[in-house]
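pinging the channel bc i need a second pair of eyes. not urgent but kinda urgent?? the chain im working w is below, pasted from the shared doc
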Amino acid sequence: MESRKTKQEVQQRYNGAVKRRKWEDPPEDPEAVKNFDPASRVKRRKSIILLGYSGVNYFGMQRNPGTKTIEEDLLRAMQKREWINDEGFRQPQQIQFQRAARTDKGVSAAMQVVSIKLPDNLDIEALNSELPEDIRVYAVKRVTKGFNSKTNCDARTYTYTLPTIAFAPNEEKVDIQTYRLPAERLARVNEVLALYVGTKNFHNFTSRKEFLDPSVKRFIMSFECDPPFLPEGSTAEFATIKIKGQSFMLHQIRKMVGLTIAVVRGLAESDIIEKAFGQDRYGIPTAPGLGLVLSRIHYDKYNKRYGEDGCHETLEFEKEEPMIQEFFKRHIASTIVETELKTNSMVEWLEKLPLHSYEPRDENEPSEWKPRNRKASDDQDDDDE
């Protein structure tokens, strides 16, 4: 009798049917049940969406009620085109929605990858017609059942595009329209950037992280600045810094760029970088968010394991490269240049940079240095693995 009672309690506590998603269940109405056709259920398979976006007019990638985000526009467009149902729109976790990286306010992505369960035979052109011009879906590809766009990612490549006036000596009075970066100064920039390569402790390059926290150790594979260029229709010279690493923390890339600029301009000694990897706390200047772009997502291990099994596509995206480059040129690179020349975000930041201190900080001081007349809520984030 007692064992029978225990069995009933277990059944009450756990009912496997409750775990099913609503869209998989037949209607509750008895009459509707008679006419319910199991074949009408939408079969969904794990897939990835390859997309790009200009983040200048958005409050980041991740969905946030009451704010304009990339995910909100993407999910709404998928709902309209019936890629997802109403429940999937309200609760994306039900369809295993996951982004490869979370870009924050103002940060763009030439390539972003989202994993999600989707039906077959999707019309990408129709979906893009529902999206604004600054968001573009390049492709949808089938992946393995357990694929996760974030945890399966081996590395991420970011770029940071800025006017070369940022690397001019602090004591020189130069103009953004006429300054040209000398070759020896570019070599100096790359010399400083090389100091970050390898596995380092980046507790000083993020927020609210302690020296002994295991998550602050990150591996940087490469970090270099390309030769400067003149954007079409502009006399101001720009350059692009490229960084590849396994993952990055909140503010990390912008702080690395910010400290590099301070060293190259002569406002800090280069040994400050090595000191910042140590236990002492330092306040690191955070470069503006405008020039930061998520450039590439790397899935080398996945490709090696599944790319040659004859059942799955490799996630290398050579076929989509022309579309990626076209979107980057038209909607990201040009926007960065136009916005910089219009708002002078880098020039204004450089004017405040000499106010920054590079001495060890007291534990009671605020954790983030901010330029004057800048609210904390205005700060922008990059990735946050």
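so The longest strand covers residues 108-118. and The chain is about 30% helix and 15% strand. — does that match what u expected or am i reading it wrong
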